[in-house]
Amino acid sequence: DPCDASTAIWGDVNGDGRFDGQDVVWLQDFVHLQYTPFATVPGTPNPFDKDAFEDICLHRRWMMNPNFDLLPVDDPSDARYGMPNIDEADVRVLSKATQFHARFLEIDFACEGGVYGNVSVTAWLGRRCYREKATNDGRLQTNVYLEYLVGDSGTPGQSFTVSVGDELADVASAGVAEPAIAGIVQ
Question: Which of 46, 78, 87, 118 is the most exposed place for a label (fewest CB within 10 A)?
């Protein structure tokens, strides 16, 4: 089922149960013919509200925006506010993933008691007909770099610990942390 996030094939945006070049072509057509007018022209209807696309499930929509960026709209009254920026950059990521030059990231963030945060990142390979996590060995090794912001520029320095697998880094922040840790996601 292309809509079951626990079993769906990563990168399968056209919903045929496979990840291949047809997904890249499908996304490219969707970007150029449907999403770009919505993203660039205020008042243009969201293509996901049209009959032809309203049944596209959340998992497939997530696969359409593998770099997780949002449209650069700062007005909450604009229908495009907070919407994913599905564009040519996403088509390139999908294309690269067909050749194992990009990975799909599954990111889970949770706050505990409003004080402690936990971020979990899992990298997945774009396999044609099955799901496979990226590993830390062999030719398909995956490095994941995280950049994070802690507080705003007026927040006093904070310290926290980041762990990746068995790597551990202590980070002190004066508002903005530099890209602080690189590690292998297992």
Answer: 118
φ, ψ for residue 144, nearest 5 deg: -120, 130
Rounded-to-integer distance, Cα 92 and Cα 81, Å: 24
Beta bridge partners of 14: none
Length of the chain: 186
Residue 170: predicted pLDDT: 46
CA distance 71 to 81: 7
Distance CA 104, CA 126 (A): 7
Q: Do the beta carbons of residue 104 and residue 94 sit within 8 Å?
A: no
Which residue has 């997904």 as its token pair? 23
Confirm if 169 and 161 have CB atoms less than 8 A apart.
yes
Q: Are 72 and 15 in contact (CB under 8 A)?
A: no
pLDDT of residue 45: 92
Which amino acid is it at 22? Q
Q: The tokens 């013919």 sit on which residue?
A: 33
Give the C-alpha distances (Å, rounded to integers) separating 63 from 10, 15, 105, 180: 7, 11, 10, 27
Divide the 186 residues of the chain into consecutive groups of 10 and give the mean pLDDT of each group.
Answer: 80 90 95 94 91 84 88 91 93 88 72 62 66 64 60 56 51 40 34
Q: Which amino acid is at 6?
A: S
Are the CB atoms for 140 and 125 separated by under 8 Å? yes
